[in-house]
Amino acid sequence: MPDQVPPGRAGRLWLRGRLGAAQRSMELLDRKRQLLRREQSRLAELREESNRRWVTSCSEAQTWGLRAALLSGSVHVAMSAAAVAGRAGVEVTWRNTMGVRHPDDPRCELPELEPADAAAADAAVAPAAAAYRQALEAGVAYAVVDKSFAMLDEELHATERRHRAIERRRVPRLEDALRRLELRLEELEREERVVTRWAQRRLQGKLAGPAAPDSGG
Predict the structure, then answer these.
(1) Other C-beta atoms within 10 Å of 7: how many?
(2) Contact, 139 vs 61, CB < 8 A?
(3) I want to staple 71 with a disulfide (CB 3.0 to 4.6 A). Which of 59, 85, 116, 122 is the partner?
């Protein structure tokens, strides 16, 4: 029997209360599970789209980077890159979904080449810099949605484990304990009725007293 069940009819009320609480917990966990699955499905589509955008933008950035290197040499490209090095920034807000705090809506602050720096370089440097900025933004977006997906996936699995534990262990134990207690209480009630009837018959017999003697003769 789960926990320390009070004896008698108090135990029946106790078990019914615990059983009702367990069933309500299952309902809440089921709603949470459905909402998490819905959000996870949305993030899965967004993650796939973000990954495609990241792969495409990386390929384009590499193409423009190679063109810039071929036109002016890797040294000049490195010099152009040094003008904006270390000036990038990323800001990520946090969102709460069913108790899960996860990253959302990233914002990138990426520097651009000054017109003088862009003019001093070959014609491919400016497009290459823009392509690399897009690739970086796409990479940040993918990283954020991938992390969010993983965090919600972990919470979803934890919610499913808690739901299964209540459904397969807690509720059956409470139901079994309540069923056994109900049987014992029914037996006790039957015994009480038998004893009560027996006591009533004895009391009625005493109140009636012995039979009066026959006075005829």
Answers:
(1) 9
(2) no
(3) 122
Rounded Cα gap, residues 3 and 174, in angstroms: 10
Give the integer Cα–Cα distance in Å for 216 and 132: 131
Q: Does 38 reside within a domain?
A: yes
217 — pLDDT class (breaks 50, 70, 90): very low
The secondary element (H helix, E strand) that includes residue 151 is helix 125-165
CATH of the domain at 159: 1.10.287.3240
Residue 98 phi/psi, 5° resolution?
Answer: 50, 45
- More confident call, 152 vs 123: 152
Domain range enclosing 36: 19-172
Is 23 within the bounds of a domain?
A: yes
Cα Rg for the chain, rounded, in angstroms?
39
* Nearest Cα residue to 82 out of 111, 106, 108, 53: 111
Domain count, the chain: 1
pTM attached to this predicted model: 0.75
